[in-house]
Every structure is written in C-alpha cells, then in structure tokens.
C-alpha cells in the first residue's frame, strides 16, 4: 500500500494515472483504506469470529478422546517427551471426564461440553494442530500474529487489510475483553500495516464484560452539528499541513480515525445495548446464569457486531492472566471454565444458524496450545504445543468432520498435521484470500501472515 504522495512520486504519468485509476476503481476505495476489497478467489466466508480460550484447554479432556490414555493411567509414557518442555511432568494421567459420541458423525466430546456437543454435525474438529512455543507469551503471539519472536500484524489486521469492512460506520476488527498479558496490544495490533487496520478493543479481561464499552461515545453539552464543525476545521488544518509538507500516512490515518469515531456514535450505542434482545435470546447465551453470563454477554455482543458488518470479531475467555492454565487442580479448573463458556458457545452457534449467518461466518475455537497427557503435580497438566485441538464451524469449513490425529496418548500431532501457519493459510483461503498473495512491503521486503510457510488444508474445507 502507498500513500498518495508516494504514488505520485513513483509513477511517470502522475495525475493522468490518478484520473485513470478513478475510472477503474470506486472513489471510496481510493480514499478509504477500509473500503470493501475483492478477494483473490470466491470467498466461502464474509466474516470471522475467533473464540479464544486463553491458557490452553486440554485436548485429551475436551475433543480428543484417547482410550489408551484411560487404560494406561499411572504408567510411564512409552516414548520420549519433547526435548523442550515448559516444566517437568510425571506419568500418564487419564481424563477425569467421560466421553460420548454426538451427532450423526459420532464425534467424541467430553462431558465438559454437553451443549457445544449438540452441534457436533456443524463442527470441523482439527485434532492435529501444532505450534512451536511452550510458553504462553510466544504461543499467544504465534496464534495471533504468526510469529512468536517478532512484532507482526495480527491475523485480524491482515483480514481487515485484505477485505476491508462491510460497514463504514464501524471498525473492521473488534476484540471484546482481550487479555492484556502475554503480548497484550500486539495480539490485536497492526504493527507495520497502516493504523486503520488495527483492532478496536472493547473492555479487557480484567473487567466484567457488562462494563466493557467503547469510551467517549457521548459529548454532553455538544451538539452533533458543533462536533461536525470542529472536525471539519481540524480536517482542513490537517489537509493544509499535508499539502505543504507531505504525509507519511500517519496524519491521513488520524483523519480517517477521527471520521470513523464520529460515525461510530450512531452505531455503537445500539450494538452495546442488549436490553432489546428477548429474554429467550439472552437465556440462549447463558445470561440467566451467573457462571455463564460474563462470557455469554461477550458472545452476544460478538453476534451483534458480526451482523452489522464487522469482518473480524474476537472474544477472549480469560481472567487477568491465564484462565485455562491448570498446572494443578485440573478437575476444578477445567470444570469451572467449561461451565463459563459451553452454553454461550452453543447458544451462539444456534443463533448464527437460525439467522442464516453461520453459512458465511467462520467460527474458530481454540487456545494457544494444549496440555500434556502426563501429570504435573498431583492433578494437573503442563503446556503442550506439540499436539492439540482447534475447531472451525460454518464459513465453508467441512462440517461433521474430525481431521488429523495425535498419537494414542494425545501428546504429538501425528496424522495430517496442521501447523499454526497452515491454519492461518486455511482461514484466509475461506475468506477468499490467498495467503501467498496477501503481502505488504515493509523495510525492503514483502511480509505476509504466514511468512514463508503455510499450506491450505483442503481436508477441512467443505
């Protein structure tokens, strides 16, 4: 992407080229970086929702049933553990939860997720995901940005950059109650992509979702007309500065941000007001129970943003640090966590399907890694990036599917392995974007979400 000044400097024909471009493209696309863009190929999904379970839910206790693990409880792992581990672990620990098969596909799901399990025939469960980092910070960044060691644009920013927004009055990327730990703002930042593509946070993980609001939407005592006059005057000052001194993109981005903030005043308050939702809908999302109401409110807000044209919405299940990180007390910790999210997730899938939104909305569930089948302490599991589970639903993902496999104990991804880069490539593909073509030139080289890696996983595409 070039600024207008760079474009004029880099072309031999200058203004005639701009005139021709005006004939070939809508004027809005030339002026607004968030204007809708055509993808590289027909899209299966128009938008995406990431349900991020921070801390690392255990695959062998949720969606990756291992009979051999149950049978060999208390025995040593019969093969070597990874060379790099987060902390020492002991012998095999069976799952304390029973599994049963759901749906026509017979998907095995543990009793931790009885409500989500009823959507088994809508799910594409990927049991063979693997990453590269056993620490929360690096792994969270890897899932969100494709890199665990460098500052890179988040996946939401890449989607925003590649697709633009369907609603000019809203951000293209919204993250609800995001964590401020383990990467913090980098997980929804745009890095070297232009500022309009970064995520807009609503609240954070340290506060209840009921208190999550976009701040400063109201200007008491100042009419909309007066705001418009002030904004127009400020814009004229900025335009005069650009005309006299040129612009590196930052001032142009600020002008766009001011304009978007002004327009958001008309849209955001209605989205944040859940009182218009029926009691039945609120109950569907678990708002009628204390344990599920907080995450349920996030999911209901997410649906309201999605249906109004936001391309990428993320909701995060986390406290101030690491919600699913049960190094000890696995039984109580995972039980509590699942009760907080199970009804809301199931309600969200039901609601999206009933509204006709699931067909072109890609829902993505998972954490930054899984957990070991070997015990830590007396009743816990350590971090495991070598084999874990994520699932997709809607948006062109293949339903009623269990793809890939870990070994018979659930430690290593073994069959049809899916690296985080592969997952990102596949998600972009479903959104109509070729991960190899979605690039941005910075510091003398082309960058992309998947760097020089990644392949689309055809087996999870319907």
Write the layout of secondary structure elements.
Blueprint: H1 4-10, H2 15-24, H3 27-31, E1 47-53, H4 67-71, E2 99-102, E3 107-110, H5 114-117, E4 123-130, H6 136-145, H7 155-163, E5 173-176, E6 200-202, H8 224-245, H9 250-272, H10 279-284, H11 290-306, E7 312-317, H12 330-354, E8 361-366, E9 370-376, E10 380-384, E11 388-393, E12 401-403, E13 405-406, E14 413-415, E15 418-419, H13 420-430, E16 440-442, E17 445-447
Parallel strand pairs: 1-7, 1-8, 4-12, 4-15, 5-6, 5-7
Antiparallel strand pairs: 2-3, 4-11, 8-11, 9-10, 13-14, 16-17
Taken together, the total number of domains comes to 2
Q: Helical amount among residues, as a percent range?
A: 25-40%
Distance between the termini: 33 Å
Number of strands: 17
Number of helices: 13
Q: Spans of 5+ residues with little confidence (pLDDT < 50)?
A: 4-30
Write the CATH fold name of the largest domain: Alkaline Phosphatase, subunit A
* Assigned CATH class of the largest domain: Alpha Beta
User: What is the CA-based Rg, rounded?
Assistant: 23 Å
